[in-house]
Structures are given as C-alpha cells and as structure tokens.
Design brief:
This protein has 153 residues and is mainly alpha-helical. The protein has helices at 22-39, 41-58, 64-85, 90-114, 120-148, and strands at 9-13, 16-19. It has one domain. The chain crosses the membrane at residues 12-31, 38-58, 64-83, 90-114, 120-141.
Length: 153
C-alpha cells in the first residue's frame, strides 16, 4: 500500500508493516558476504564504498544522508562480524552478521531520517526475512564449494 508522499508499505508479519525498500537491504547484506567469500576483504571494502556512493545517488533527496550513512555503517558492521566467523561456518557467519547489521542499519537510518525508532520492528523483521530466505542458498553454495574443492578468498 502506497500513501501519497510516503513510502510504500508491505506486511512483514501479522500486524507489522515495513517500507518495501527493507527487502533489498537484507539482500545487500548477504551479497556483501558473498563478495567477500569469493573476492576477498579488499573487494568487499571497495563494494561498501561503491554501494555508499550509489545510495547517495539514488536515495530520495530528503533521505540521502540517512540512507548513505546507514548503508556504510551497516555494511561495515556486517564485515566486522562476518570476517572473524566465516572460516568456521560460512552460513552461521552470514546469518549472525546479517542480523547484527540489520539492527545497526535500521537504527541508524530511522534516527537520522526521522529522529525516532518508531518503525524499528518492521524494519528489522523485513530485512531479517530476506536473510533467513537466503540461508538455504548459502548452505547449497557451501556444499558445492566443498565438492569442487573451492576455498573462500
């Protein structure tokens, strides 16, 4: 549902709505982990910088600072959580770093954009759904890599 001059909302749980953009944030966090797994830490840091620039270029003018800062901070949090855990268990590392950075992203964005955390629950749940939905794919990738003898970067 889209109200005039407001973000489009979608249900993320019974009685809980969130802006539709939260789904892409959950996907972006998993994709950052995959970039680091395949290409290494340096490329992951470059991807965060490029993503922050894109966030600044494509965000609504009123939300540029909130969007850019939230992206950069949450992706960095994801990197800091994921990096030490990835070698032990890729899927668990992606899940934990995703959930941690979802909370950081939601709090940073809401405080910078609106000065409150009123929509925090919907933001976190919507992003978490995307991370949870990606877990079977990550599990499959891990098994495929092992079968092919591939090591993470």
């Amino acid at each position: 549902m889209c109200a005039p001059h407001a973000p489009c909302l979608l249900p993320v749980a019974p009685g809980l709505m969130a802006p539709s953009g939260v789904l892409m944030v959950g996907v972006a966090l998993i994709l950052r982990d995959l970039v680091q797994r395949r290409l290494g830490l340096s490329w992951s840091v470059i991807a965060i910088a490029v993503g922050a620039v894109f966030s600044a270029l494509f965000a609504a003018p009123s939300l540029v600072v909130a969007s850019t800062v939230a992206f950069a901070v949450s992706e960095t949090a994801d990197l800091l959580i994921y990096t030490p855990l990835q070698r032990r268990n890729f899927v668990v590392a992606a899940f934990l770093s995703g959930i941690g950075s979802v909370c950081v992203d939601s709090m940073a964005f809401l405080m910078l954009a609106f000065g409150n955390l009123d929509l925090l629950s919907g933001q976190v749940v919507g992003k978490a759904w995307m991370i949870i939905l990606a877990l079977p794919l990550l599990q499959w990738l891990r098994k495929r890599d092992r079968m092919m003898g591939m090591e993470p970067a």
